């Protein structure tokens, strides 16, 4: 039995009140439409057709990225899910024989196994059409499944067209349908836009089929959250929390310690090895990879990062950074793209890094900015150092060798090269290259002007303290 899948992705998403198309809002790091397409991909259909209109230029590359070979169909100005399917079928080869599965683009949690079960039930019952239904405590916003006295499925009524009695029905239409292609083609021709929204509703096909005496089945889904539809941002965050809970549990069962699932957010594409520990308030985003034994958090955000075995990252924010095994980061470190920290290295408290490689065993422990730099192995950058990489027009790169010790409060004016085994004095502004083994200093000798406070700040607390100190020590 052949299968064609139609993914409905042409709607405006008005209820999101967003300049971004609804189906591009991310859920666990994947745009909404990507979830449905990934499920469609698993179903091995002969054809997958995605119908687009609103936000087409932004959606099309995303859709084609997830599912190369997808057939994109442009919906015209006639609105409604029925019109979308009508135009999708016009793009399906005339000689296609089999089932048409319609998936709403804004129902992201539905998995391929549930759909396989639904299709199997549809084929077994040999009905003209089947819909997936669910029972909701609060069915607001969904189309309701209307049954007759004997419980036989009659039709679907949309919320805004429903009577007061119909609004009390808690069984809803999930927006997932299976049709025999012949019946579907026949009835699409009979759809009208005679409803509150003036749209061609796909859901009206069901009533039309029943009126003609065809059998239609409503197949209840095992758990209603599987078919949660996203129309507004409240539903988006509810669904995000549900999906996140599943992701977190999955990693816990795989051997990851997660202290607080409620405050730990993990994107779908993240991978985590066993014996990693994740503390509260941690977000792992994008394609982040965390190796065995690492400890992350609390209060840490990692975006597209690679964290090595047994590394430790505390209260920090990092994007596109690589932290090698046994290295430590934080607390309060800011690792910007291109940061590479070598094995057993350290980026410490209140340190910002960008486009910088720090070699194995090297440390930037306190209060520093390291941008556009390459630092060798086992070097130590003194507290409060700044790599001055920007001349106001261009960015320049600096090099620091291995086994270097720079004094506190150094400024390295790029481009500059500091060779292996160099020392720099505290407060040095390094503007010229430093050869191996040298001590670089350029500070002016210190002058103590004795008695200055007593003379020029007479009457102050400082002057009094100085006088008292002079008394006790017997000097002056
Ligand atoms: C739809 C169903 C409703 C069901 C609910 C389940 C209809 C008429 N109603 O309502 O019975 O309970 O889904 O979530 O189908 N779309 C198009 N072209 C359009 C309009 C919409 O492709 O002209 C797409 C949207 O992008 C979306 C999907 O179809 O992915 C559903 O559209 P939406 O407007 O969200 O329908 P609901 O009001 O949620
Ligand atoms: Ca919807």
From TrEMBL:
Keywords: Acyltransferase, Cell shape, Cell wall biogenesis/degradation, Cytoplasm, Magnesium, Metal-binding, Multifunctional enzyme, Nucleotidyltransferase, Peptidoglycan synthesis, Repeat, Transferase. The gene is glmU. It holds the Pfam family NTP_transf_3. The active site is at 366 (proton acceptor). Acetyl-CoA binds at residues 383, 389-390, 408, 426. GO terms for biological process: cell morphogenesis; cell wall organization; lipid A biosynthetic process; peptidoglycan biosynthetic process; regulation of cell shape; UDP-N-acetylglucosamine biosynthetic process. Pathway: Nucleotide-sugar biosynthesis; UDP-N-acetyl-alpha-D-glucosamine biosynthesis; N-acetyl-alpha-D-glucosamine 1-phosphate from alpha-D-glucosamine 6-phosphate (route II): step 2/2; Nucleotide-sugar biosynthesis; UDP-N-acetyl-alpha-D-glucosamine biosynthesis; UDP-N-acetyl-alpha-D-glucosamine from N-acetyl-alpha-D-glucosamine 1-phosphate: step 1/1; Bacterial outer membrane biogenesis; LPS lipid A biosynthesis. UDP-N-acetyl-alpha-D-glucosamine binds at residues 8-11, 22, 75, 80-81, 143, 158, 173, 231, 336, 354, 369, 380. GO terms for cellular component: cytoplasm; membrane. It is found in: Cytoplasm. Mg(2+) binds at residues 106, 231. It catalyses: alpha-D-glucosamine 1-phosphate + acetyl-CoA = N-acetyl-alpha-D-glucosamine 1-phosphate + CoA + H(+); N-acetyl-alpha-D-glucosamine 1-phosphate + UTP + H(+) = UDP-N-acetyl-alpha-D-glucosamine + diphosphate. Signal peptide: none annotated. GO terms for molecular function: glucosamine-1-phosphate N-acetyltransferase activity; magnesium ion binding; UDP-N-acetylglucosamine diphosphorylase activity. The keyword Repeat applies. This is Bifunctional protein GlmU. Its cofactor is Mg(2+). Homotrimer. Its EC number is 2.7.7.23, 2.3.1.157.
């Amino acid at each position: 039995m052949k299968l064609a899948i139609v993914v409905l992705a042409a709607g405006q998403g008005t209820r999101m009140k967003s300049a971004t198309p609804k189906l591009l809002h991310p859920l666990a790091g994947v745009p909404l439409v990507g979830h449905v397409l990934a499920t469609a991909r698993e179903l091995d259909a002969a054809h997958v057709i995605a119908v687009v209109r609103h936000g087409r230029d932004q959606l099309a590359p995303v859709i084609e990225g997830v599912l190369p070979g997808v057939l994109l169909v442009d919906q015209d100005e006639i609105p409604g899910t029925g019109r979308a399917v009508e135009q999708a079928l016009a793009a399906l080869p005339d000689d296609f024989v089999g089932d048409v599965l319609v998936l709403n683009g804004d129902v992201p949690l539905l998995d391929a196994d549930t759909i396989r079960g639904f299709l199997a039930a549809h084929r077994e019952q040999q009905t003209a059409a089947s819909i997936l239904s669910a029972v909701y405590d609060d069915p607001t916003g969904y189309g309701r499944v209307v049954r007759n006295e004997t419980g036989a499925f009659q039709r679907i009524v949309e919320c805004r067209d429903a009577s007061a009695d119909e609004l009390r029905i808690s069984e809803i239409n999930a927006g997932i349908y299976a049709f025999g292609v012949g019946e579907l083609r026949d009835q699409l021709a009979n759809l009208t836009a005679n409803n509150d929204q003036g749209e061609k509703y796909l859901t009206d096909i069901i009533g039309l089929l029943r009126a003609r005496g065809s059998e239609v089945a409503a197949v209840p889904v095992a758990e209603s959250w599987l078919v949660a539809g996203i129309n507004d941002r409240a539903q988006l965050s509810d669904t995000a929390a549900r999906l996140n809970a599943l992701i977190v549990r999955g990693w816990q069962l795989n051997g990851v310690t997660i202290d607080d699932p409620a405050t730990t957010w993990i994107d779908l594409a993240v991978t985590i090895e066993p014996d990693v520990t994740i503390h509260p308030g941690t977000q792992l985003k994008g394609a982040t990879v965390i190796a065995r034994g690492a400890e992350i958090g609390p209060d840490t955000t990692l975006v597209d990062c690679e964290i090595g075995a047994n590394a430790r990252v505390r209260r920090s924010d990092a994007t596109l950074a690589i932290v090698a095994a046994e290295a430590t980061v934080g607390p309060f470190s800011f690792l910007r793209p291109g940061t590479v920290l070598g094995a057993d290295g350290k980026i410490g408290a209140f340190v910002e890094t960008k486009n910088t490689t720090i070699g194995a065993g090297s440390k930037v422990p306190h209060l520093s900015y390291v941008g556009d730099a390459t630092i060798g192995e086992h070097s130590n950058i003194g507290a409060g150092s700044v790599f001055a990489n920007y001349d106001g027009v261009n960015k320049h790169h600096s090099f620091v060798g291995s086994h270097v010790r720079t004094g506190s409060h150094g400024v390295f004016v790029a481009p500059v090269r500091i060779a292996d085994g160099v020392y720099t004095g505290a407060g040095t502004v390094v503007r010229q290259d430093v050869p191996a083994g040298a001590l670089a200093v350029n500070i002016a000798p210190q002058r103590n002007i004795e008695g200055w406070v007593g003379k020029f700040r007479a009457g102050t607390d400082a002057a009094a303290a100085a006088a008292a100190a002079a008394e006790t020590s017997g000097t002056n």
